[in-house]
Amino acid sequence: MTTLHISTDKALLDVPLIHQFLSERSTWAIGIPLAVVERAIDNSLCFGAYVAGKQVGFARVTTDCATFAYLADVFVVEEQRGRGISKALVQSVLEHPDLQGLRRFMLATSDAHELYARYGFTPPTRPATLMERYFPSIYAN
């Protein structure tokens, strides 16, 4: 594999690729409008994964950079999977200087529990204390 480069430089992000993946190929954001993706990127710490200068992966973190972070929209394009890119991407997220010393770092996943468990993510210790407002079909309207 050509050298993998991971960057938080938003100027490098291939926003059309990110939108296309999330809106058409993800399991969690089908139909998400481009304007929503752009606003999410603008208000998050974003990580792009690049091979030979082409974006092949993405992750974003919503955080106050002090006590809390939420990892979202992690993906690697299908043709680049199985090469360790998702592991390198998550490792880069967790090593970022702005994300050290946080009290809580959360995420939601339906199929990548094993990946995140490698990095210390577990089911909530006290699930009875967590609540949410969840609108799974919000982008279908």
Automatic annotation (TrEMBL):
<feature type="domain" description="N-acetyltransferase">
    <location>
        <begin position="4"/>
        <end position="141"/>
    </location>
</feature>
<dbReference type="InterPro" id="IPR016181">
    <property type="entry name" value="Acyl_CoA_acyltransferase"/>
</dbReference>
<dbReference type="InterPro" id="IPR000182">
    <property type="entry name" value="GNAT_dom"/>
</dbReference>
<dbReference type="Pfam" id="PF13508">
    <property type="entry name" value="Acetyltransf_7"/>
</dbReference>
<dbReference type="InterPro" id="IPR053144">
    <property type="entry name" value="Acetyltransferase_Butenolide"/>
</dbReference>
<protein>
    <submittedName>
        <fullName>GNAT family N-acetyltransferase</fullName>
    </submittedName>
</protein>
<dbReference type="GO" id="GO:0016747">
    <property type="term" value="F:acyltransferase activity, transferring groups other than amino-acyl groups"/>
</dbReference>
